[in-house]
Amino acid sequence: MTQTPTPAPRRRMLKSVRLVFNNGHSVVNGVLRDISDTGARVSVENGLSLPDEVKLVLDDGGSHQCIIVRRELKELGLRFT
Questions:
Q1: InterPro entries per the record (predicted)?
Q2: Domain ranges for the chain
Q3: What pTM was computed for the model?
Q4: Are 33 and 41 in contact (CB under 8 A)?
């Protein structure tokens, strides 16, 4: 019997972030809502038009390569790769 992995604890945030894609030629601004060791939740103006893989760039200079695992019009669930 396989166990479902325990989700990583999320830390609530309210910070500006950028989602970068198209080999760094395209950027969408967003708001980081929460983050964990394995992923993040980001609010955006329109999440439906983004590709499946993006780079999450934080204001402190940190970044994470991500796969979009949950997509709504104004919110994305990201998993770090």
A1: PilZ_domain
A2: 11-80
A3: 0.86
A4: yes
